[in-house]
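Give me the 3D structure for Alpha-mannosidase.
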Amino acid sequence: MLPHDKMTALSVGLQDQLDGMDWQTLKIPLKTETGEGVYFGSFRVENFWIDKSPLRRVINVETNYFSLRWPYRLKEEIEPIMWRHKFMMCTKKIIVYRDIPRIDFITEIEDKHPKARIRVRFSTDIKSADYSCGSQFGVVSRLTDQCYYKPEPGEEWEEEPRGIFPSLKWLDYSDGKKGLTVIHRGIPENEVRDGDVYLTVLRSVSMLSSDGISGPAIPVPDARELNKRYEFRYSVYPHEGDWREASSYKHAIEFNTDLDTLQLPKGMKLPLNRSFLKIDPGNVVLSALKRAEDGDGVILRFYETKGEEADTEITLFREPKAVKVVNMLEEEDEGVKKELKREGERIMLKMKPFEIVTLKVEV
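Predicted structure for Alpha-mannosidase (363 residues):
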């Protein structure tokens, strides 16, 4: 599914004019780490090593990107010295775990080109007309290969489809038998075309609507991400089946949720294992656990993630004194009324596809 020589590569698109063409016209990255693209850019690996431990391997790669500046046609008249034009420094950590199916990436980039889009590309042999993007309390289906879209005769668009979409925490590209989930933090821009998954990590621009067609040209000097070092974290999760079978949302939540630690008072002892609550089945996810705004009780908010009905069971650490369904404002509301069953520490209810439920619990 993932060819070892093209599994991941940084892809650079420079927005300077190239003999009348820019990266949007070319429909290809100007340069990738695997060598594809046009002639005026080059990645060079400066250092490479592997850190080993019993639990994981960390592959470290240090890379520089060299590129000419416009006008590139002068290359034919004046032979450039490429190594003098270093426009990006990149350090990547690729983390492979012993017992976790994800592969995590930590990429640091320092960009010196004023107009650039830097993306990560994951190549696959998957063929599918759509892919799935995580959204707030749900999942959205997107079309692939939209950059090749051509309007039908007589069809008019205010803005033609570009194939660039947002996602929240994750996106998944699969054919039903196998798939690849790309998990991310930060910029949510992504695209799938020709079987490749692109994730944007950095945009640097000096002017909005520089062509003067889509709106007035507006200089934005603060959007030039120059000489700043940024860290980007993302991950891939190859799997069998589709995103539902692979529980892609669960791996995305785990990747995006940091572990919080607390220091206990001296002499205080707690049991080795203790949980405030447990929720079944696995496609029901807890999104909020906090004290109620009125100070009376605890708020539990959870939602269904697969788009399926779910017989949900919540097990608390002790039997609650009272449980009621409330709305997002933590108020009782006839519009969110729901039948609840209680047996000791357990609370049982039925949930609709992608439904959000908020409970106020007195313990």
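DSSP finds three helices and 24 strands in the chain. Let me know if you want a second pass.
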